[in-house]
């Protein structure tokens, strides 16, 4: 198992020495990604739109370019990404997406548009990819593998929450689920679907 880790965070993973090979660096560094994904059958990648210099887009491009042929690629992002324009977003999310992206870009903290561009690169790729779109994340014990839909707005996604650990479980499960190839599942907690 191999992973890319910010250099300043490598020490936090000391207890995993011998279980995982770490590549200190940033995921938008194509050379770091090329080394980390070499020989991997599957790649898990979080598309983070940090800063205003194309971090998410460079990350996606590096993974698409350097992952071994035939490798399963599983990316993650937020619900706001739409593959086919058929998602029906709740009013609160639509309002947030009008206010937050310009504000964080002005502050040079993040560029949500960069994540949109990164996902467009993925959607255009002929690689075996899956783009997992996560709802609001929360801490807590696992509630089981999340349920999903192709489109935000499906009633099963109404509660809009997923345990962080279950988000990770879904990404790992997507590595071997051929039904998810070239799809962008929007996920929620399994319990969220029956909560009321």
List keywords for this structure.
Rossmann fold; 19% strand; globular; alpha/beta; 196 residues
Q: Give the CATH topology.
A: Rossmann fold
Low-pLDDT runs: none
Number of strands: 9
Radius of gyration: 17 Å
> What is the typical, i.e. mean, pLDDT?
92
Number of helices: 5
Order of helices and strands: EEHEHEHHEEEEHE
Measure the end-to-end span. 40 Å
Query: What profile does the largest beta sheet have?
Result: 5 strands, mixed
CATH architecture: 3-Layer(aba) Sandwich
Estimate the strand proportion.
Answer: 15-25%
Anisotropy-based shape: globular
Oligomer: single chain
CATH superfamily: NAD(P)-binding Rossmann-like Domain
Structural class from helices and strands?
A: alpha/beta
CATH class equals Alpha Beta
Largest sheet: spatial strand order: 3-4-5-9-7
- The figure for the number of domains is 1
The helix content is 25-40%
Give an account of the 3D structure:
By secondary structure, the chain is of the alpha/beta class. The chain has a single domain, classed as Rossmann fold (3-Layer(aba) Sandwich). It is 30% helix and 19% strand. The chain has helices spanning 30-37, 55-66, 91-106, 112-123, 164-174, and strands at residues 2-5, 21-24, 42-46, 72-78, 129-134, 136-138, 147-149, 161-163, 186-188. The protein has a 5-stranded mixed beta sheet, sandwiched between helices. A two-stranded parallel ribbon has the order 1-2. Helix 1 packs parallel to helix 2 and helix 2 packs parallel to helix 4. The N and C termini lie far apart (40 Å). The model has no long low-confidence stretch (mean pLDDT 92).
């Amino acid at each position: 198992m191999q992973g890319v880790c910010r250099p300043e965070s490598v020490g936090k993973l000391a207890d995993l020495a011998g279980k995982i090979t770490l590549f200190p660096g940033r995921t938008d560094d194509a050379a770091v990604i090329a080394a980390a994904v070499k020989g991997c059958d599957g790649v898990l990648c979080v598309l983070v739109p940090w800063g205003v210099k194309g971090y998410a887009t460079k990350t996606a491009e590096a993974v698409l370019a350097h992952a071994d042929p035939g490798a399963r690629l599983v990316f993650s992002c937020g619900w706001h990404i739409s593959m086919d324009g058929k998602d029906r977003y709740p009013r609160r999310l639509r309002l947030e997406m009008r206010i937050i992206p310009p504000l964080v870009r002005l502050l040079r903290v993040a560029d949500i548009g960069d994540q949109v561009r990164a996902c467009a690169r993925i959607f255009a790729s002929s690689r075996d990819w899956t783009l997992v779109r996560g709802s609001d994340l929360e801490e807590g014990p696992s509630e089981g593998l999340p349920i999903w839909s192709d489109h935000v707005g499906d009633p099963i996604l109404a509660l809009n929450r997923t345990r962080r650990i279950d988000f990770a479980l879904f990404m790992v499960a997507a590595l071997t689920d051929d039904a998810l190839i070239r799809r962008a599942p929007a996920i929620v907690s399994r319990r969220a679907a029956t909560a009321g």
